[in-house]
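Input:
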Amino acid sequence: MPDSTLSPTSNAPDATVEAYVATWNETDAARRQAGIACAWAAAGRYRDPLMASDGHAGIDAMPALSEAEGLAAVQARFPGFVLRRTSKVDSHNGQLRFSWSLGPEAGPAVVEGVDFCALAVDGRLEQVVGFIDGM
Amino acid sequence: MPDSTLSPTSNAPDATVEAYVATWNETDAARRQAGIACAWAAAGRYRDPLMASDGHAGIDAMPALSEAEGLAAVQARFPGFVLRRTSKVDSHNGQLRFSWSLGPEAGPAVVEGVDFCALAVDGRLEQVVGFIDGM
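Output:
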């Protein structure tokens, strides 16, 4: 029951970010899609300098829909890479930011950046805008 | 003619941020209000951990409307303080971020932070969300 796992409690921003980070690292398609439904509002929008995706299916980006976008494509291109949250979740007014790194499990980060997120009233992600700090 | 001074050209994000920063430092009410109309879309929203303002009048926050919010109130509380942009403007997909500091003209910064902004199609600010890095 994805919708019941998050609620707008005081630690909702942290729980939402944990669910979001987990979707980046989940390579089982069914579990990743369930996680996306936990973390994201139905009309969620993702934007970074390289990718733009809308809605649960767009964010997951099954290869049949698009080979160029989405978590599935990122995982296919960078097998074994792990997304890690590297700062606390700093939130106010339904908005939050956190820093992250992406790279191989045992090696140094290949990309680092900041995600700026807006939460829907149910605590799920309405928008994620990613910025790159180093590559 | 505030609406004609900004257009969605390649350097629009920089020009918008310059116009926005200038409104923080403009103590003449009429010039500040004209600057706000240049920098902000009519339905613009400002959020930081301490202030929330909507629309041109709310962002300006004439004392008759509210003594607790807005640029006029900040200037009254911290006379001589200057807002400075301390990073480049990093933008993509109509979204941008930049770092700033606030403090006395000749002294060290009292507050530092990051603003995340969404631009309207005309290049003006639709939303500014500020986060504090140090105080």
